[in-house]
Amino acid sequence: GAVVSQHPSWVICKSGTSVKIECRSLDFQATTMFWYRQFPKQSLMLMATSNEGSKATYEQGVEKDKFLINHASLTLSTLTVTSAHPEDSSFYICSAIDMDRTNTEAFFGQGTRLTVV
Amino acid sequence: AQRVTQPEKLLSVFKGAPVELKCNYSYSGSPELFWYVQYSRQRLQLLLRHISRESIKGFTADLNKGETSFHLKKPFAQEEDSAMYYCALLSGSARQLTFGSGTQLTVLP
Fold first, then answer.
1. CA A26 centroid distance within chain
2. Hey, which residues does B56 pair with through a beta bridge?
3. What is the C-alpha separation between B78 and A70, in angstroms, rounded?
4. d(CA A97, CA A56)
5. Between vectors from CA A84 to CA A80 and to CA A87, what angle results, nearest 5°?
6. B59: which DSSP letter?
7. For residue A13, with 0-12 CB atoms within 10 Å meaning exposed, 13-18 middle and 19 or more buried, which class applies?
């Protein structure tokens, strides 16, 4: 199957700093990428839908100024957590789909563990 | 709005026993449902989708529109089936996945 790569796999940052997480589709063009947040022992919560070349669509309750999403190319989307605080510590997961395929299957990155200290 | 419910957070069965992971959904449109699995320390991956009507690793799932269910079943559980299982509903023009809360399956020896 197709591969989605996230970088970094884990990051520790100081409170007040910003952190950028990259999501790349390695062998297909991802017209749409999704960003999820997963708390320990809980499900994936969709944060935003990102389409190449346009503004991301954020889910209700997700601060777009805090979680900046850029989908500048068909193979790369980035999530920047701005002015991070300890409550932003979480597991962030991206997924990508190729809308041009008949059977759209979402492929997931390995996730990024963010710890804000 | 769409919703996916997995009533069991934890499920333990013995090796060789049948297993059923429950999933119910609510959605006003025509549903497209999936089961995803996450093995320990691995990424989420697709297990099966209802439109394929396939059996993967011995698992099957039938969409029951009358009961709005998409339960995952396997007649004889194996230890390697131990994992976190998520039921998911695909919706919208943006093809968004709504996940259930997940069921942690443990197959005991």
1. 15
2. B59
3. 42
4. 15
5. 120
6. B
7. middle
pLDDT digits (tens, 9 = 90+) for B74-103: 999 999 999 999 999 988 777 788 999 999
pLDDT tens per residue across span A38-53: 988 778 899 999 888 8
Contact A109, A2 (CB under 8 A): no
Whole-number pLDDT of residue A89: 95
- Strand-strand pairing, B83-91 and B96-99: antiparallel
Residue, of B57 and A99, whose pLDDT is higher:
B57
Closest C-alpha among B67, B36, B62, B38 to residue B51? B62
Closest Cα in chain A to B10: A41
Do the chains contact at B43 and A97, CB–CB below 8 Å? no
Residues of B in contact with A109 (CB under 8 A): 43
- How many residues can be counted in chain B? 109
Quick one: tokens of B27?
Answer: 């959605």
Token pair belonging to A114: 């963010």
Chain B residues with CB-CB distance to A93 below 8 A: 43-44
